[in-house]
Design brief:
Keywords: Membrane, Transmembrane, Transmembrane helix. This is Secreted protein. By secondary structure, this protein is mainly alpha-helical. Among the domains are: 63 residues, no CATH class; 105 residues, no CATH class. The protein is 65% helix and 0% strand. The protein is built from nine helices and no strands. Helix 1 packs across helix 2, helix 2 crosses helix 3 and helix 3 crosses helix 6. It starts with a helix and ends in a 42-residue tail after the last helix.
Length: 246
Amino acid sequence: MSTGVIIALIVIVAAVLVVAAVLALRARGPQHGGSLKRRFGPEYDRAVARHDGDSKAAERELAERVRRHGSLHPRPLESAERERFEAGWTAARERFVDSPREAVGEADRLLAELAGARGFPDGGQYEEQLAALSVHHAHHVEGYRRVHRVTHARVDDAHDGGAGTEEMRESMVEARALFEALLRPARHDGARHEAGRHEAARHDGAPAADGRREGDPHRPGADDDAPVPTRAPRTWSFSKRQPKES
């Protein structure tokens, strides 16, 4: 085989490989965008709108969020922490009737602190914290965005009544979804906690949480696939005249 033929074959093979790579990238592009759209839901549409309809630019932004925060594993809350945050939210919503703006500000602070306690970026880095939350709680993060916007909006001639109060009330109602999602223990958090309790019982011979000691064949083991109970959401409204959240 002559040198010219060998060179021609190399050129043809290289061309085929380039075309195959281009076709593979084109085929992967829509799927990548589709997976981002499924993952981010309403956040995907907001990103596209923020980029004036440029879906590719929006997808690059969302993909970067996943790259930075996708591997984050939220830290489980201790019972005392969970109770403290629950009490704080209850106090904030009760304050709304007399001081709606202060109540919304307290809700904004609580969400930032709770997210930080779960292991998300500190609340002092609001944009980064919001980006991380959008990766893991895309369908609930808009409520946090709303209470933060209302809290830090400049007050000119606005009054704490009428539409202003309604907007603040709606922002708190919407933000509660993210608050409860962050407060709720994940399934693996509960399994890890139960495994730790059983392990401690095996070491010290103390009864497990169900009152049975190690060696009892009826005592559930740490490997039992029992469902972890979750807290049922509670409905609430700020006054009798306001409709309850559905």
